[in-house]
Amino acid sequence: MGIIQIRNADTGGWLHVLEAGLNDCSTLAASGSHILAAASKGSVFLFDMLTGEGLGKPIETGEDEVASLAFAPDGTVLATGSTEGALLLWDIQAQRFWRELQANGHEGSIESVVFSSNGLYVAAAVDNFVMVWDSGTDWDLRTFLGHEKKVVLVAFAPNNYHVQSASSDGTVKIWDLANSSCLRTISIPLGQWGTVAFSSDLTKVASITYVDPIELWDSSTGCLLGTLEHGGDVESLAFSPDDTMLMSATYGGGPVKLWDLTDDMESSLTPSSQEDQFIYSMAFSPDGTKLAVLTTSALRIWDANTGQCLRKLDEWKAPWGGASVIFGSDGILIARTSEGNSRVAEIWNSLGR
Prior knowledge:
Pfam families: WD40
Mean pLDDT: 79
Largest sheet: 5 strands, mixed
Radius of gyration: 19 Å
WD repeats: 59-100, 103-134, 144-185
Strand order of the largest sheet: 2-1-33-32-31
Strand content: over 45%
CATH class of the domain at 61-187: Mainly Beta
Number of strands: 33
Low-confidence stretches: none
Keywords: Repeat, WD repeat
InterPro entries: Quinoprotein_ADH-like_sf, WD40/YVTN_repeat-like_dom_sf, WD40_PAC1, WD40_rpt
Number of helices: 0
CATH superfamily of the domain at 61-187: YVTN repeat-like/Quinoprotein amine dehydrogenase
Distance between the termini: 29 Å
CATH architecture of the domain at 61-187: 7 Propeller
Shape: globular
CATH topology of the domain at 61-187: Methylamine Dehydrogenase, Chain H
């Protein structure tokens, strides 16, 4: 059985230890109301991130495994996407099933699900398709066809009427909900093992297929803006919340690099231990001032503007199998899940309060 640990980031002292029943935590999601959702096989566990207390009984989806999670913007609804193509909505306050969004017979794994910023729509990657529903009525508003291979990422534009998707066929497509059309297709280096990231305003796309260079694209024109040389096999990319910086990292070690997209400046965050051979996960804080980097032996918080290491939160030995780190919406809480034999999820107060 796994556990949920809540610790003080500065002192390392224990605040809470909870038995959570997380036999294999596959994915995490945090809401703006301090609720953490952790998926384990077909169950979803809910926790109050401020107190560490479990919120009622686990949500039992009835599916073999939950592949994706997403909270509605107001935190009242949770969407769960399964490996069998089931997309379910859950009422968080009542902790009960609300409705199923029908995928019209598509049974592929739902690897990405997202709410529009107004909470009215839900979009999901289902096989080679992008599907959009009305979250309040469960009506299938649109099914967008055009990708030739699996869709790996979907996102809503700030206007809530355009959806952007990336596929392992090496294309990014921008879809218009109003007239069910594809507005634009961008060919990018991606493939089956590539990495892609969208800026929050969906005006930029960063992509790479392991080897340099990273390519930066303008979503509105489909033009290549430029290339960035990381110097290694890049596996992770992420934009800062204000889209002024891009973060890149290699899985097999080496520095995390920050790229200032406003003046083409580059800075490196160098792990301080030779044991930091693998970078499992990284994330920006919501205000973009901090960067969390989870490596083989430690989780560190960096100042995104200066490149200085602010604190080393924990010494640990990551199990082979992967791990991830996320920030809570207010930038205070950091969550980690480790797969493998230990199967541990941890939450720290990154400000020491």
